[in-house]
Amino acid sequence: MGDRVVSNGPHAEVVSVPKNLCARIPDGVSDEAAVFTVLGAIALQGIRLLEPTLGECFVVTGLGLIGQLAVQILQAHGCRVLGLDVDPARCRLAEGFGAAAFHLAPGSDPVAEALRFSRQRGVDGVLVTAATRSSEPIAQAAHMCRKRGRIVLTGVTGLELNRSDFYEKELSFRVSCSYGPGRYDPHYEEKGHDYPVGYVRWTEQRNFEAVLDLMAAGKLDVEPLITHRFPFHEATRAYDLLAENREPYLGVLLEYSSAAAPREAGAQVEKTATRVRTERGPGPEASRLSRTVFLKESGQERPSAAEEAVVGFIGAGAFASRILAPAVAAAGARLKAISSASGVSGTHLGKKLGFQQSTTENEVLFGDPEITTVFITTRHNTHGPLVLKALKAGKHVFVEKPLCLTEKELDAIGEELQSRPDPKPLLMVGFNRRFAPHIQKMRTLLQGTKGPKAFVMTVNAGAIPPDHWIQDPEIGGGRILGEVCHFVDLVRFLAGCPIREHWVSALKSPTHDTLSLQLAFQDGSIGTIHYLSNGHRRFPKERLEVFAQGRVLQLDNFRKLRGFGWPGFKKMNLWRQDKGHQAEAAAFIQAVRSGGPSPIAFHEIEEVMRVCLAADRHVRSGSRA
């Protein structure tokens, strides 16, 4: 407790960061220096791939922040360094760190300079930290290198490579990944599972520590890299500097100290239509920035009858931004507030669709008495807890599938919903397919038949890698809970009666996502859901066939519905695929306004979830029942 630490967390006053993404700051390293640790680790990881040895000579192409740090780290390895950049000021800065530098002026010849620098032998390696669409930096690097030289790309360039450049010299070319091993691995970054040091010496955390040790030893000087400092409440000025490029800059620091904040309570920082409020904290000099951004004025009027569905959104990912939120807006709901993890995606979507506020605190939505309805579109492991919080706050709730990931959460949600006073809040899960026009037509046709029916649902789902978040039992819950539930609900809706029992069998695989689920209904109907991840992408993704009373319905990918033996019905085609998202949102918003029941009864949602939870449990245990 009390140690200073550095992490890769976002720009914020308070961040929650997993332990493997933090490193203790040694005594003697200032806070200002420590903030360069993450950038230094990016440079260091590229250098580790170069595998430098004492006395070798290297070129660093691109002398921005990462390039300047790389110059110093290579020198700390005992290497000679030549830096290249189009900015003469950055070349002079690299020279101040003891490197040779070459200005990439029009008509200059960096290859000739590199050969001169290497005593006509060719350099041992090139670290490319530049950002350009051109492939020229890589081509030049190949010409600069000696035979069997090494090239590492840490920046972003074009990659149109000439094979002969690499073949004749037997060059190696590698692309470094961020701060080092562990990056983008949820088991390392999110769950805190470290790699054994005997097998992975330099993880991203240990790279952080190595950079900090260089700073503590005086071998990595970042003070000359700082060109601007801004107090946090003037952060918009810093971003204006980066966006408008009106003056030279390199290292731009945001200062979070309380002394830097404005002293007046309620002081405001304004930029275009975005307003950030600064509020006084508990201490005489303390202040904090609210985590809510006001995107537009709400006005003083109360919501009209047509605006009684006042909506708060939790989550601003791809599905929410492209499909669900626009559908809710089209349904006529008033979009009050949107909450997202970082605030960036929520603010962008909020401005686009006309939300009044954007926040990073879900409690803002739960505590707002004007918000009647909460939409939840976050990762699956958060659904159950967020649904419970919203219900306890008295909100109507729409949650994307699945409702939850455990029986315990499902029981708690049912108990909370039952305990709410009348009129009870509405709870709906995003089983949109039952609202699709083709499915509505099939339901109407089937209601005119007698006797049990047989359903065959084939889903050519395609493969998802085992390390994808949806395959993680603790985060995504797996595809049975996350996706198969859609089709269980769809067949349950068309059958129109409860599921009596079910069986599941699956191919053996680490992802448990190639399976056949059989359903038996109380009226004698049967259903089979083939959910397959081992198919070909050119085969239709979803196909539903229904056999009833000497007749057949065939739905192909929510585009074409064909009837065989149906009096007065042969086909129903749509120009565009429609899986029911618009109708689903409209039905739920209308139910909220009218005070009517949820478009999907909770007992049906619960039934579907219990079937899927049991199926997932059986597949993971290897049993069939």
TrEMBL record:
Residues 461-547 form the GFO/IDH/MocA-like oxidoreductase domain. Residues 66-184 form the Alcohol dehydrogenase-like C-terminal domain. Keywords: Metal-binding, Oxidoreductase, Zinc. Residues 265-287 are annotated as: Disordered. Signal peptide: none annotated. The keyword Oxidoreductase applies. Residues 272-282 have a biased composition (Basic and acidic residues). GO terms for molecular function: metal ion binding; nucleotide binding; oxidoreductase activity. InterPro entries: ADH-like_C, Gfo/Idh/MocA-like_OxRdtase_N, GFO_IDH_MocA-like_dom, GroES-like_sf, NAD(P)-bd_dom_sf. PANTHER family: D-GULOSIDE 3-DEHYDROGENASE, NAD-DEPENDENT ALCOHOL DEHYDROGENASE. This is Predicted dehydrogenase. It comes from Desulfacinum hydrothermale DSM 13146.
